[in-house]
Amino acid sequence: MTGWTTRDIPDQSGRTAVVTGANSGIGYVTARELARRGARVVLACRDTTRGKAAEELMRAQAPGCDVRLAELDLADLTSVRTFATELREERVDLLVNNAGVMALPHRRTVDGFEMQFGTNHLGHFALTGLLLPRLRAAGPGARVVTVSSGLHFLGTVDPRDPQMDHRYRRWAAYGRSKSANLLFTHELARRLAAEGSPVVAAAAHPGYASTNLQTAAARMEDRAWAEQAVRLLNRLVAQSPEDGALPSLYAATAAGVRPDDFVGPRVQLWRGSPTRSVRAPWTLDDRASAGLWTLSERLTGVTYA
């Protein structure tokens, strides 16, 4: 995997990709690079104004690309169902579950879930289940890539209090939601293998990449000093969104990606070319992944066929 870059992305002509959170950061770069290599890309974005601006910029940066915008709010299960129902494409070759929120003050989704668990995990769980028939229709080569984080090491989902209703701590909640992403990938890969499906479920993380994700909480709380501090830190030590998107792109397109692989930057979970990443042992626990799956089906009402 040494030195893998966007130049190594195989031709994606004839393939359809859905990328959530494609209006900025690593989601934008992931969508743009897939489009540059010939994929038809659906930009699944919550904010359609920002999404439209991203679509126009993408067309300018990748002339002739086949992209279109579709509204998707992962914090609203009605929006997730509407997106899946109205998706025009009959097959989906790549689903990149990229969108997310980080370390927010305590908030609830439209459906009453804790915002980080609801957006980062439950929204993507529901979306993947609803699009799975189209992924199966794509046949060999279809992949689901869910973007986790090196900060999943902060903790795993507590089945007694999965949404931290009793004592909410924003960073712990973020870490647990990212562990949920890996538990979901583990269980999805196991279930696909059991049914003999060629669809590959893998995960990725960007290391420390400079995106809008880090400043969202500070803006939400009107803490200008914190926002400026994060921006300074990003300039000093973070890698670019272009580099941060490489693990997602590798997991989505490179040969040899195996079910339940976790791809991240080579250097200390931080930066560098993509490679298979270390992960917390609890993200490979069959009992925990099955328990989270059952809980997720009950909360979202989405049952995988």
UniProtKB/TrEMBL annotation:
Transmembrane segments: none
Superkingdom of origin: Bacteria
Family matches, as InterPro entries: NAD(P)-bd_dom_sf, SDR_fam
Gene Ontology molecular function terms on file: oxidoreductase activity
Keywords, in A-Z order: Oxidoreductase
Recorded coiled-coil stretches: none
Similarity-based family: Belongs to the short-chain dehydrogenases/reductases (SDR) family.
Stored NCBIfam families: PRK06197.1
Protein name in the entry: Oxidoreductase
